[in-house]
Design goal:
alpha/beta, Aspartate Aminotransferase, domain 1, Aspartate Aminotransferase, domain 2, 2 domains, three-stranded antiparallel sheet, 12 strands, globular, succinyldiaminopimelate transaminase activity, DapC_beta/gammaproteobac, Putative 8-amino-7-oxononanoate synthase, aminotransferase
């Protein structure tokens, strides 16, 4: 067996199940699950129709590069969304969702053949795929804490010179999971300057970019162009899962540095990760339509408007820059005890923030927070938050 598998830590939801095992919540209160970031809004009809109309694609092997139609649809979306003209042949690569692509990209980039173990830097808290991908590629994860006093952005000045010297890849997430923080142009400029100095690749996870409150988040490639740069050592990852409520379709794309994508395509050709032609056709329909995205966004805005002020009466919380999570600070500072007691008394599930982070530099930056995913219906989200506030009031009275 691959000995690196032993380095992997339990996934957050595995830890959550273990935490709540044996706890008996009140039977008279229906369960409200606000822990997992799985979109619950209906899949757009146009996507369903495109899937049904293209079932013949199931009888064919797809090309790893994807169809011309899909790559052109992705390029057209990048033009509309970011005012970027990308080469659909060399600067865009369809993938089976951003999760799969992020993992595979790390395996492509990392060179562990040298005398020193390479480093992959990620924000902390973080999406657990970043860590697992780094470990299985033979790299050492290095965590940069994202604290409230830093706008929940990584403080790159805290990274030692010796770490930068070994860094081959920096992963960023904007809008961030779980904090919802968005990188500014100045944030990007700092990171680009570091990449120029040390030569590392930047992987920008932007799968939450279309869940916002009227101000579209700045993207990594967009920032590079605004700063007069090309896309050297820079790729972005995006997905239809959140944008179009199709997490089960596993569809997204990677864009950016053509030289990196050529190597990534080679890896993926051997990896056997081509997207079904049926899913490709449905993806074209999704990328070509914005009406359903605006409707989806409006539903999230309505939920944030309804629940954020109410939740702020019990927990320290604010509306994020983007995304569909609330990153709420708990009164007693113990996120794990809070989540367990909340489930036991109110039958509401939230995710302890410490499960999304690692102890680093003397602190676990998620330890005093819980992540609340506003993916359920408006009514369920309101009811869930009412129960949370009632629970907090009892705990603090």
């Amino acid at each position: 067996m691959n000995p690196r598998l032993a380095q992997l830590q339990p996934y957050p939801f595995q830890r959550l199940r273990a935490l709540l095992a044996g706890v008996t919540p009140p039977a008279d209160k229906p369960h409200i699950n606000l822990s997992i970031g799985e979109p619950k809004h209906p899949t757009p009809e146009l996507v369903e129709q495109a899937l049904i109309a293209n079932l013949a694609g199931l009888s064919q092997y797809p090309a790893t590069l994807g169809s011309e139609a899909l790559r052109q649809a992705c390029a057209a979306w990048m033009r509309r969304r970011y005012d970027l003209d990308l080469d659909a042949q060399s600067e865009i690569l369809p993938v089976n969702g951003s999760r799969e692509a992020l993992f595979a990209f790390v395996q492509t980039v990392i060179d562990a053949s040298g005398a020193q173990t390479p480093i992959v830097i990620s924000p902390n808290p973080f999406y657990q795929i970043y860590e697992g991908a780094a470990l299985l590629a033979g790299a050492e994860p290095y965590y940069v804490n994202c604290l409230a006093e830093q706008r929940f952005q990584p403080d790159w000045s805290q990274v030692p010179e010796a770490v930068w010297q070994r860094t081959q890849l920096v992963i960023v997430c904007s809008p961030g999971n779980p904090t919802g923080a968005v990188m500014s142009l100045a944030d990007w400029e700092t990171l680009f300057q570091l990449s120029d100095r040390y030569g590392f690749v930047i992987a920008s996870d932007e799968c939450y970019s279309e869940i916002h409150f009227g101000r579209p988040p700045l993207g990594g490639l967009e920032a590079a162009r605004k700063l007069g740069r090309g896309f050297e050592r820079l790729v972005m990852f995006t997905s239809l899962s959140k944008r179009s409520n199709v997490p089960g379709m596993r569809s997204g794309f990677v864009a950016g540095d053509a030289a990196l994508l050529a190597k990534f395509l080679l890896y993926r050709t051997y990896h056997g990760s081509a997207m079904s032609l049926t899913v490709q056709a449905a993806s074209v329909a999704a990328w070509n339509d914005e009406d359903h995205v605006e409707s989806n966004r409006a539903q999230y805005i309505a939920k944030f408007d309804a629940v954020t002020p109410r939740l702020a009466m019990g927990l320290e919380v604010r509306r994020p820059d983007a995304g569909f999570y609330l990153w709420a600070k708990v009164p007693n500072g113990n996120d794990v005890d809070f989540a367990k007691a909340l489930f036991a008394e109110e039958h509401v599930t939230v995710l302890p923030g410490s499960y999304l982070a690692r102890d680093a530099h003397g602190v676990n930056p998620g330890a005093a927070y819980v992540r609340v995913a506003l993916v359920a219906t408006l009514e369920e989200c309101v009811a869930g938050v009412e129960r949370i506030v009632a629970f907090v009031e009892r705990q603090t009275s």
